[in-house]
Hints:
The protein is globular. The chain is an alpha/beta fold. The two termini are 15 Å apart. The strands form three sheets. The chain has a seven-stranded mixed β-sheet with strand order 2-1-3-4-13-12-11, sandwiched between helices. The chain is built from five helices and 13 strands.
Amino acid sequence: xxxxxxxxxxxxxxxxxxxxxxxxxxxxxxxxxxxxxxxxxxxxxxxxxxxxxxxxxxxxxxxxxxxxxxxxxxxxxxxxxxxxxxxxxxxxxxxxxxxxxxxxxxxxxxxxxxxxxxxxxxxxxxxxxxxxxxxxxxxxxxxxxxxxxxxxxxxxxxxxxxxxxxxxxxxxxxxxxxxxxxxxxxxxxxxxxxxxxxx
Length: 199
């Protein structure tokens, strides 16, 4: 499988590429929207929503990402890249996002930082695979259990009807930690930093 990583000069590009290289996938860093041609693209993110969206808009990637999804190709958003998939973020005084999924991003309750490891259990048979993500499932296990690494201050309040969605943690239940809708997936945690579970 060929995978494009969107590279607008923000975030953890090298970590994401190294993570995907472990799976021996053909990975390309894409710096121009016209080169976004693979079956799947990854939208990584470390930083804040305002400057990130400014860079996406200025580079022409905003429309390229939406077209990629419209054509039925897969998209994975990681951390800020997951948040960017929604309508609006309260970060940076309010930021308009991609509106691929319905919902908003807000500061975590109590203005806390959510940094560290959380246990995450995924019932594999609860995924409504429609061919998109099923081909990527490398496990015959009924449950995927492990620890996911988080590092963020803002999180998603999901208002969309997803094929799969799980809460952020037992203490932050109203926020979304992982979701899948059709050909779009978002992970608030960092799979590239979550060791074997992330893979």
